[in-house]
Amino acid sequence: MEASRNYYKAQILGWSVYIMISTAVFILSGTELNLSVFGGIYLVFALGLIVTHLYRMAIIQLGWLDFDLFKIAPRVLAACILLAIGFHWIYLNILNLAFGWNKVFLWNDQNLFAWAMLFFIWNLIYFAYIFFQRYRKEEIKNLKLEAARNEYELRRLRDQMNPHFIFNAMNTIRALIDEDPNKAKGAVTQLSNVLRSSLQTGKHELIPLERELQIVKDYLDIERMRYEERLIVEFDIAPETLSSSIPPLMLQTIVENCIKHGIAKLPKGGTIVIRSLSNSDYTEIEVLNSGQYVANSDSDSTLGLENTRNRLDLSFGKRAWMTIGNQDDETVKTFIHIPKTTTHDTSIDH
Predict the structure, then answer these.
(1) For the whole prediction, is pTM greater than 0.85?
(2) In which element (H, E) is residue 119 found?
């Protein structure tokens, strides 16, 4: 409906502009503006509306709107010639009848070229608008498809993380059953809290850093039951970063890797430091852990890191990234750089 309204508005406006230009040309040339002159001008307006509208109906009926530029071009050129001939013949006959003119149709009449150019301009504007609308619809369609693909990929990555996290937590509890059954019971209770939080946050694409830190702390409470004094955790969180949005379970996954591939392999255990910084329009998160990072040394670790990078890319594009490497001989540093956005979702229960 909107396209049809735009078409009729453009038709009336376009041919009205032609009337004004024609009138101005006659005035500037010194032509006397009598009834027959005005009749000729307004006849072009009326015929132009009728002929181009019928031509548009033919375009739609013949399926030209589905053609590409190379198929349309020769058809438009041929149509402009035929329209000019038919238009000129009808125009002369009506003027002869209405005003007693005695003009005959001549093939070398320069008006034929003028009408052909007029119809060519009409075609140029009409098809330019059609191609623009087609491009716009295709672009919107592609954006929707891209958004759907991104949403599917995010869900796939989130679904991939939940079993991974549960598997690691259950391994911790299994180890505690042999070492200290009472602690194992407490760990089961703590795990239920962590699972509850992870299931709630897993429904969201982004959550506040503050909420993610709570999940991390709950998870670390379970691990402390197992590692006791071998696991030391330090937090250095800038208050202004707590409202920053991050993908759920992203930081928790990094902390898991710190324990599994760092602390667990050290006889004396080690330290995990989680730090956040506010830097202009970005939030920066650093996770330091005792140990040494060896690239591609563990397929499970690699999967978790690639998963995290993919989630950052899908959520923030090139504005976010993650790096991991050895800060020194005894410390691994994971660095996350994300744009400072906030989530206003308050549906997550605490």
Answers:
(1) no
(2) helix 110-179
